[in-house]
Amino acid sequence: MASASAQRVGIVFVSHSEKIATGLVELARQMAPTTQLIAAGGTDSGGIGTSFDKISNAITAADAGGGVVILCDLGSAILTAETARDFLDEAAQLEVRIVDAPLVEGGVAAAVAAETGGGLNAVAAAARTALQPLSPNPSPAGGHDTTTRTPRDDTPPHTDSADSGAISRTVILTNREGLHARPAAQFVNLASTFPVPITVNGTDARSLLSIMSLGLAKGSTVRLASTDPTAGPAITALADLLKSGFGEA
């Protein structure tokens, strides 16, 4: 029987530029180190364009048993990817999804979803979250400020009296760059291991793009909350990760 990691969804980045596709793999690898991330950029001769053979080979290389999600940069890349998929047998075609999403943001979100064990539908959906408008400053609207506070604002998990059964905890970000891409991915990876719903300043703790859109910098107040009264251990683990500084000096 294949291991769980062997069943992970693979990601293929299709770009007219070989350098762009390779760079996207390098970027996504920082947040999804064990996921199959394959570049299929440029023509067979290394020029600008797309290659049926490169994409076909990339699909094969990315397939670890959980299916493959393909993201493309321009319309003709989508056409070439569709042709490559059509040449697969019927059963294999069902395990390959070409997702209409921004190549960078959607690709990174898909890679993180795959890294956390998401299935084909979940990984494709994660890529599509990049199409959704994100508030540039959602915290004030949600009633949670991100002003600098002292570490005394770190509170143990407690039940919110205004919301029966809800549990929350407030911590202060200590790492220099706040929740930028790499620590945000670590946070989302950990949040995805828990079966309970958790929010960060009102946004889904499992959504990388939503977390990054909060713009939480060093010294920001972070409120972890859940409507599930059994979420205490999960919130504690996430709070401990935030307080650790993610290993940053």
TrEMBL record:
Keywords: Transferase. GO terms for molecular function: phosphoenolpyruvate-glycerone phosphotransferase activity. It catalyses: dihydroxyacetone + phosphoenolpyruvate = dihydroxyacetone phosphate + pyruvate. The keyword Glycosyltransferase does not apply. GO terms for cellular component: membrane. Residues 146-161 have a biased composition (Basic and acidic residues). CDD domains: PTS-HPr_like. Residues 132-167 are annotated as: Disordered. NCBIfam families: dha_pts, PTS_HPr_family. Homodimer. The dihydroxyacetone kinase complex is composed of a homodimer of DhaM, a homodimer of DhaK and the subunit DhaL. PANTHER family: PEP-DEPENDENT DIHYDROXYACETONE KINASE, PHOSPHORYL DONOR SUBUNIT DHAM (PTHR38594:SF1). Component of the dihydroxyacetone kinase complex, which is responsible for the phosphoenolpyruvate (PEP)-dependent phosphorylation of dihydroxyacetone. DhaM serves as the phosphoryl donor. Is phosphorylated by phosphoenolpyruvate in an EI- and HPr-dependent reaction, and a phosphorelay system on histidine residues finally leads to phosphoryl transfer to DhaL and dihydroxyacetone. This is Phosphocarrier protein HPr. It comes from Cryobacterium luteum. The lineage of its organism: Bacteria, Bacillati, Actinomycetota, Actinomycetes, Micrococcales.
